[in-house]
């Protein structure tokens, strides 16, 4: 059969996509930049085979298979359709969802997640990334549900928050005076960030406004502290609640959508650093190295080995514990550069992505009709804790 390429890939075309509990992994290749072409010509370190396979063509060829391999011809709109749209559908169905962008600095994480955000949501610029498109689709779905389910008196409430993790400290990007926020765990609320601002929004435009403001605050913080934003992780969260009535019972549904732009995955150099600087250098990638370890141990767990999963060893993994082997539908977009000079970093990203593919999540609908579901969820959480204590 002729290889199918990602341009023709439709989410609904592939029956395996989201049908299992595994994390979905998408590779996105960016085009060679003009400076890369002028230095090394059109040579590349990878060769795409089909819409699901890619070969690394370094000193030894290695072939990798993923849920989707999107080459440089795949548009921002297409990326939204295969990755963003199903996330919103999941959330509307009451499932928590999470999207991570992984990859070395310059591989296209921010282009994928945000892209051109200044263009507004009404008329997308072609470079507008997944996040603003998610907002627009989310609110169009809400509008449709409201119209279709008038008898049930369905009501929606949306909130958003935006934070940054740098040097193992959490900064509220919607209220930059709030620094070093703490992560807490509560039987009812689950894992949450104490005192993090959650802003109520009524439209895609409102939500985009928060995103733009937060991104600007992130830039200011990076400049003031004299550091590159490529060394911090950012997490934008949409919280969607709905309430309706059916046969005299009030139903309540709840979902969180986390959109995560990770720090550059390249190794950080700490040579020559001392004191605070050294601590900072070792902390910078703590969240990322713990993420790697968490994934490694989850893979071993799925192979029947009993291992402690060190979620609490970093802010990122503690905060996003549910998205890694828990109650969430999760997509990882691993961004790679095809450039010859990035060959080893690209291989390392492909290997990371391949490991991540083994993570099994267990997403459940967050719905409460008579109180039963919530009680069961709490019992499940309690049991899970007891199981992990046994390990
Ligand atoms: P990262 O956030 O991973 O450091 P960026 O998203 O900032 O990387 O991308 C680096 C550069 O490459 C930017 O100029 C961006 O516009 C460009 N770029 C990345 N991915 C693509 C793509 N798929 N198509 C076109 N340009 C891209
Ligand atoms: Mg970036």
Automatic annotation (TrEMBL):
ATP binds at residues 103-110. Residues 22-359 form the Kinesin motor domain. Belongs to the TRAFAC class myosin-kinesin ATPase superfamily. Kinesin family. KIN-12 subfamily. This is Kinesin-like protein. The chain holds residues 74 to 464 of 799 of the full protein.
